[in-house]
Amino acid sequence: MNENNESLKARKIRVSIYLTPITDEIGTGKTGAWRNMRPVWNTELCKPCDACIKFCPDGVISMKDKKIYIDYIYCKGCGICSHECPRNAIEMIEEPKED
Asked: Are 19 and 12 within 8 A, CB to CB?
C-alpha cells in the first residue's frame, strides 16, 4: 500500500494485538451472513484471562465488567478463541440458519 496516496483513505484499528490498516474501499469485513460456526461464551467456566481477546484475529471479542462480548457481525467463526481458551469456556456451535 502506498502511504503517500491521498485518494486512499486508511485508518488504523486495533485487531487483536496488532495495529492493522483498513481502507474504506475494502470495507470493514462484515462476515455474519456467511459464517457457519459461532462462538458461545459459558459464564460459569470463564475466569477472565483475556486469552480469547488476545488471539482473536479480527478483534471482535472485548471485555467489560468481567463479561465477554463477541461482535457477531464481524466474527468469522474461525474458532481460534475456543481453541485458545484454557478453561474451555467458549464453545463453537453451528450458526442458526434463517428461513
From this structure: yes
pLDDT digits (tens, 9 = 90+) for 12-48: 444 444 444 444 444 456 775 678 899 999 999 999 8
**Contact assessment for residue 48 and residue 87, using Cβ atoms and an 8 Å cutoff:** no
DSSP H helices, 1-99, are: 51-55, 80-84
Tell which wins on pLDDT, 11 or 25: 11
Closest Cα to residue 28, out of 2, 10, 5? 10
Residue 36 falls within a domain, yes or no?
Answer: yes
| C-alpha to C-alpha distance for 79 and 52, rounded to whole angstroms | 10
pTM: 0.66
What is the total count of domains within the chain?
Answer: 1
For residue 86, give every residue at least 6 positions away whose Cβ sits within 8 Å of its Cβ, in sequence order, or none.
Answer: 49, 51
* Residue 21 forms part of a structural domain: no
